[in-house]
Amino acid sequence: xxxxxxxxxxxxxxxxxxxxxxxxxxxxxxxxxxxxxxxxxxxxxxxxxxxxxxxxxxxxxxxxxxxxxxxxxxxxxxxxxxxxxxxxxxxxxxxxxxxxxxxxxxxxxxxxxxxxxxxxxxxxxxxxxxxxxxxxxxxxxxxxxxxxxxxxxxxxxxxxxxxxxxxxxxxxx
Length: 173
Ligand SMILES: [Zn+2]
Ligand SMILES: [Zn+2]
Fold this sequence. Notes:
Blueprint: H1 3-25, H2 30-39, E1 48-59, E2 64-76, E3 82-85, E4 90-95, E5 98-103, E6 134-138, E7 170-172
Parallel strand pairs: 6-7
Antiparallel strand pairs: 1-2, 2-3, 4-5, 4-6
The chain binds zinc ion (2 copies).
């Protein structure tokens, strides 16, 4: 989605996340979690149950939706329930020259699922391509590949994973 749309919606996702935490801390789900725990002995060992909260933005025109929030409480047999955060980090892109911001596992153009863009540089749904219509917008020095090392315009090789920025696929913001 456009950066301006993302800026409008991301705080709402954060707010929902905070409210969920408050409810959880206040014990709103205690009874539910106890019941899940009590049901496990009668369920196959391979089952796990999660109590999730999503914020989904759906675009009728694109016929695709994206989760701005995907979080919850995960329960597994024999261990205590724990909070899970399935969100990936948001990433900025230039799409047809326009700044977009979307969680990194989606296509910033059609909102279809498109993960690992450097290994598979073409969106499986709309065929937009990294280095062509889509470019990574790097506005900090975090490596877009491993998310941990440092990378700069002067030193475009990650000091951790050795990833080399392809000038065609990336623009510096
Ligand atoms: Zn796409
Ligand atoms: Zn790296």
